[in-house]
Amino acid sequence: MSSPSERLADLLIVGAGILGLSAAIQAANAGLRVIIFERNVSPVGATRRNFGMIGTSTLTHPSGIWRQYALESRKFYQEIQAETNISFQQRDGLYLANTDEEWQVLQEFANISPDHAIPSQLLSNEHLAEDYQYLDADRLKGGLLLSEDYSVEPGQIGHSLLNVARAHHNIRVLTQSCVTQVKSAENHVSLKLADGQYFSAKKMLITHGDVTDILYPDVLKQAGLKRCTLQMAKTLPFHQSLNASLYSGLSIRRYPAFEICPSFNTLTKAQVPEIVDAYGIHILIKQTADGGLIIGDSHEYHSLDEPPQFHQRETLNRFILDYCHDQLGIKLPAIQERWNGYYLTHPTELVFVAEPDPNIHIISTIAGKGMTTGPGFMINFIKNSIL
């Protein structure tokens, strides 16, 4: 692959989601000349279609390397936020327990978390009634407040980081640029855009999210990757500030940090409605800057041979709304919009990393925790595989 229009750089990055953008910024800070390609005007995949909850405390196991990635991601956001507003701010995470099993795990976590430098505070239902009056505390056993969690605006973070990349003297950003072909040669890599332009560099990083039909589709399918579909919605503005991002008792069963609790296995074996296990439902509520509440979500897994799931299941929507009302006591405003989110997941690994050709790297499937851990993971990948 060659052309008179070929341009030389140190690193080409395909995909301007959170992985691609954080990789570009950190590689450029290390002195590399970077060109990043985004086929849309701005990121519209998982970087846009998520809750914007940075669950530093619980989305990773406290003693694992991913905990370190979460802390490094937090530092990445903080340093940029100090220079320009990307909507990154501290916001407590509040886990709410309805059952004795959920409450037992929260109590155990509050006792153990100081050993892992995770600040937490156990709240009685009386405390919940006083400080979170929008909840019906009589339906709750208690709560756990986590003060090292953060928040971003999902509609802003991708666009803001794209502007940060544009302003960097070592980064060239090309949006509305669809990469259709890549190739590895003896001492460089190259790519071709749909408009016929060619670019080359020393190395290439592909972070194209759930778009798998153009570059190396066979590699992704042979690895057993699946596409996860999540149902989400947003309400009209709520009448008061939540003062926290809310996690239900169903979320306690799902997040790795709670595995350190002796009663965690008992909780996971406790009976839940069949629809919860069948569709991976756990309830999250996040308030956006305009006062609306993002609520969800569910998880359905499909082969990459199947097209993305465009419809929503109304039974899941109904269950989520009923849970908010019946278990938490929140009187939700009317729904103003619904959407599906998508990400790839690996059957056994927390991330999929491949080098299908020399110096061409694919990174994908940081499933459900990309905003929380992605930048930190990319810091280490850039150091070990790119520099």
TrEMBL record:
One of its GO terms (cellular component) is cytoplasm. Its cofactor is FAD. InterPro entries: FAD-dep_OxRdtase, FAD-dependent_OxRdtase_HpnW, FAD/NAD-bd_sf. GO terms for molecular function: oxidoreductase activity. Keywords: Flavoprotein, Oxidoreductase. It holds the Pfam family DAO. The keyword Flavoprotein applies. Residues 10-376 form the FAD dependent oxidoreductase domain. NCBIfam families: HpnW_proposed. Belongs to the DadA oxidoreductase family. This is TIGR03364 family FAD-dependent oxidoreductase.
